[in-house]
Amino acid sequence: MSTRPVLFFDIDNCLYSRSKRVHDMMQELIDKYFAEHLSLTEADAKMLHQKYYTEYGLAIEGLVRFHKVDPLEYNRKVDDALPLDDLITPDPQLRQLLVDIDRSKVRPWLFTNAHVTHGKRIVKLLGVENLFEGITYCDYAQEFLICKPDPRMYALAERQAGVSSAGDCFFVGGSCYHHSGDWLSIVADDSYLNCQTAQARGWTAAHLVEPGLPVPATKASQYQVQSLEELRVIWPQFFRNSTGGRVNQSSLRPLEAL
Fold first, then answer.
1. Deepest in the core among 122, 143, 155, 249, taking most CB within 10 A?
2. Low-confidence ranges of the chain (pLDDT < 70)
3. Are the C-beta atoms of residues 173 and 193 closer than 8 Å to each other?
4. Which of 159, 179, 158, 185 is nearest to 170 (CA)?
5. What CA–CA distance (Å, rounded) separates 152 from 216?
6. In this structure, are residues 66 and 104 in contact, taking their beta carbons and an 8 Å threshold?
7. CA 173/CA 193 separation, integer angstroms
8. pLDDT tens by residue, 47-56
9. CA-CA distance, 34 to 208, in Å (whole number)?
10. Which residues sit opposite 239 in a β-bridge?
């Protein structure tokens, strides 16, 4: 196991802004899947989708438990069907932030409820696929799905990243709001509850709440930020200063090589 701590980054609505509307389009595809495969009305599809998302952290978890849906087929028709090439573009500011992380002090790691194909598509389109040491994801190929905020998902991330203590884990995840009629709640993958659970486990967490989103009355975790750039302020020990030198980007490996 490495002695360096790990900085876990959520992917959706965290590495890119919710203004990209990836989440909104994903919700539409999920609702369509529920309606078509369960023979539901549009209203009933939305309601059941939100119920499973709230109770299990992922809609697919409820579909697998109660309807024997093939999660890989679901992934092909939902996450992998998103027109991400039209939505996500390289982000130089994000790339510079990640390049500025001092890898002698911390290891950047992806931590997502999406299947691996979606996660890798996103970071490749953002132009940051070679700036993480690994990825922990919800493996849709497994018989039993585990996802945040289930504590077992955090334990899995610790094992895969080779962390010996929860105190060596740092996490940043953003909020996204689901709308269903007049119902509004933070129940998405990159959620208040995920940061709350991370802190309860002993991790240090930062809840990303973008400008324009309602600010929680009570913070989800130790830190609340409006942009990833604020990580430089709350965790300065993980970033190079102006005299700290530049990273050799030719030595960085894409996720496919890990």
1. 122
2. 1, 176-190, 242-258
3. no
4. 158
5. 26
6. no
7. 10
8. 999 999 888 8
9. 30
10. 101
Distance CA 32, CA 10 (A): 25
Token digits for 38? 């369960």
Chain centre to alpha carbon of residue 143:
22
Six-digit token string for 99: 């390049």
Long-range contacts of 70-79 (CB under 8 A, 24+ apart): 71/115, 71/140, 71/141, 71/145, 72/115, 72/140, 72/141, 74/33, 74/140, 75/115, 75/117, 75/118, 75/140, 77/29, 77/33, 78/26, 78/29, 78/30, 78/33, 79/26, 79/114, 79/115, 79/117, 79/118
Residue 181: other Cβ atoms inside 10 A: 9
The residue type at 26: M
Collapsing DSSP to helix, strand or coil, 33 comes out as: helix
Q: How high is the pLDDT of residue 235?
A: 98
User: Which candidate, 66, 80, 150, places its Cα nearest to that of 49?
Assistant: 66
Given a contact cutoff of 8 angstroms between Cβ atoms, the answer to whether 215 and 200 are in contact is: no
Question: Nearest Cα to 128, choosing from 147, 166, 100, 106?
Answer: 100
Q: Are 114 and 79 in contact (CB under 8 A)?
A: yes
Residues 6+ apart with CB under 8 A from 225: 172, 206, 207, 208, 209, 231, 234
Would you state the structure tokens that stand for residue 222, as one six-digit string? 């130790």
